[in-house]
Structures are given as C-alpha cells and as structure tokens.
C-alpha cells in the first residue's frame, strides 16, 4: 500500500532525527555507513538526554555498535553501555518478581495477566534486554482487588496512594493501584482496567479467553493476545501523547508480527477508536518506517487520524514527561485538549456525562452522612459552582 501520510517533521531537532534513525536501522551496518552526515554537529549531551527520556537507550546502544568510533564520543557510548547494562539487570530482576507474583496469585485463585514489562520485551524484541521497564503492570478481575492487595501487603509491599472516592467512582475513574516494595525496589501496578473510564473496553473475561502463555518463565505467566495487545498499546500510547518513543517502538515491532488485522479492525471499531489505530500506524510509519499494508486500511480511513498524528509531534518537540509533577501549564492545557480530541463522539458524550457524577471534592465541600450521598447527584452543579466562586474570590 502506498504511504501518502506525510507529517510535518521540521520541528524535530538533529539529535532527535539521529535517535529515530538509529531506532529504525535494525543493525544494518551498510545503512549506517551511508548516513554518516547524520552524526555531524550533534549536541551529544542532548542526544544522550533524549535516549534516556524516551527510554530507548538499549536499542540505540545496540545500533551504535557498528558505528565508526570517530563519529561519536567514547563517553557517550560508555554512558549508553552502562545504561544498557543497568536496564538489563533491572529486567532480569523484574522477570523474577513477575514469576513470583504470578505464582502467588495463581495459588490464591486470582487470574492475572501481565500487561508490559519483561514479558512484552521478550514477545516484541525477542530479548528482555532490548526494552526498558521500571515496573510491573498486572491485570486482574476487579472483584479480586482486595485479595491481591492483602497478598502484596503481606509480601512486604506498601500501597503508594489511597485515592479519594465517593459512590464507588474509583471503579471506572481510576484503573490501577500502585504498590512499592521498599527492599526489592520493585513497583507493581495492579490494574482492573486497561485504561481509565468512562470509555468502554474489553472485559477481563474476554481478554482472559484470548490470553497467551509466555515462554519467558518456568511457572505459567499469561499476557494479552496479539490483537488485544495491539489495542492496549495503541490506546495507552495515544493517551500519553506518544511522549516516549519506546511506546512507538513497541507498535513498530507488533505491527511487523503476524496479526489478524480483521480482528484488530473489529476491535478498534467496537470500542470507537479506529482513529487511534490510524494515528498509531501513521506515526510509526513516518517516524520508524513501519510498513503500511492493505489490511490496515480501515484503521487509516478515519478522517482525523492524520490530524491526531500531527498533533502528537508536539510531545516529541517539547520532550514532555507527563509523569513529572507539576506539568507545565501550557503542556497541561494542550494535553487536555488532545485527550478530548482522541475521544470518539460517543466517548465524548460519556466523558461530559461523567462530570454530573459526584466527585470526592463534593463530599469535602459539603460533608454528608454516607446514607445521604445520593444527594450529591442533584447538588453537584451547585457545589461545583460554589468551589469555582471561592477559587476566583481568593486573593
């Protein structure tokens, strides 16, 4: 299929263009030798910062092994080597903990699937050392959350944050709880949804029926089926503005696997995110040379896929970290608008309607006995207006 999806990439720096070149080179030394000019006039400090920010230093280090030693400072290569080595040890450490937790949950009759981490690195890259991961993301049925939390606390994990909730809004407004082991230095996110609500997504039962068994561990560890994994990685990356190239590298790898694109198209259509799939394919194609094949055509048919892909370039240009608080105001405002533009018409309606569901702040504004919490539904507009008035009245 001819690729006519040309993005405006003029805002990308030389350092970022070199990074992208190394990510898509696939260890072809001849290609490397023919592109010596890309290594000229590079701010190597900035290049190193970009590789770490996008968490693609294992891929970059591997690609640079065939480069002429005069093209790149030895200090940069050494820094990348140390990062690569540290990341490899981290992935091996996470692999052991992942297997232990899967065994623990199985013994207590909790079905679990690992979403990312070492299992994803092995599946997409064939090597746990070629992808970075700082935590484990594990999906379980929502009814098993209390049991899973008790097991993790008994194992020595600490619950990171106890979020406020009212009328069980946590079940759909949030999608995971974070635990940290102070001794092992492992962070675990226990998910009951793939993404935050109120948008619909496949149920745990559906995902479990299509699960795969990982060959990485001796004890059975399960993860998402190929088509479900594409759905999850695309929606996750889009929700974060593709602000880390590692997520796009994952999409490049999975798109090159043998996938049932008919199932993917149906899945994306069912959950109103064909345009997100289109955005994903266009970005991967333009930045990493991911081949666009005929079977992807339904994903690219959405009229706003191209615009959404171009909008995501903002996150690369700004080198944005959405997890570092506080997020700069202009970035926060842009991200809110971009998230809304990612929603389908139906999901936008659900999102707007969700504002009429009580928030924990309503209970803080007007504390009521739990038996009367239903009154927050009619009171919500008044309480919201009251908080806004007080906010602007303050000096």
Largest sheet geometry? 5 strands, mixed
Instruction: Report the count of strand segments.
Output: 7
Report the uncertain regions: none
Calculate the mean pLDDT score and round it. Answer: 92
Kindly report the spatial arrangement of strands forming the biggest sheet.
1-2-5-4-3
CATH overall fold name of the largest domain: Beta Polymerase, domain 2
Helix-strand category: alpha+beta
Q: Tell me the radius of gyration.
A: 23 Å
- The N- and C-terminal alpha carbons lie at a distance of 60 Å
The figure for the number of domains is 4
Q: Strand content of the residues, in percent? A: 5-15%
Proportion in helices: 40-55%
Give the CA-based shape. Answer: globular
Q: CATH class of the largest domain, anyone?
A: Alpha Beta
CATH architecture of the largest domain: 2-Layer Sandwich
Along the chain, the helix and strand elements come as HHHHHEHEHEHEEHEEHHHHHHHHHH
- Number of helical runs? 19
Describe this entry's structure for a reader.
This protein has helices at residues 14-24, 29-33, 44-53, 57-64, 74-107, 118-125, 145-154, 170-173, 204-209, 226-239, 245-255, 261-270, 274-288, 297-300, 305-318, 329-342, 345-354, 360-365, 376-393, and strands at 113-114, 135-139, 158-159, 176-181, 186-191, 212-213, 222-223. With 395 residues, it is α+β, with helices and mostly antiparallel strands. It has 4 domains: 7-72, no CATH class; 94-224, Beta Polymerase, domain 2 (2-Layer Sandwich); 225-354, no CATH class; 358-393. The strands form 2 sheets. A 5-stranded mixed beta sheet has the order 1-2-5-4-3, with helices on one face. A two-stranded antiparallel ribbon has the order 6-7. 34% of the residues are buried. InterPro entries: NTP_transf_5 (IPR039498). Pfam families: NTP_transf_5. This is Nucleotidyltransferase family protein.
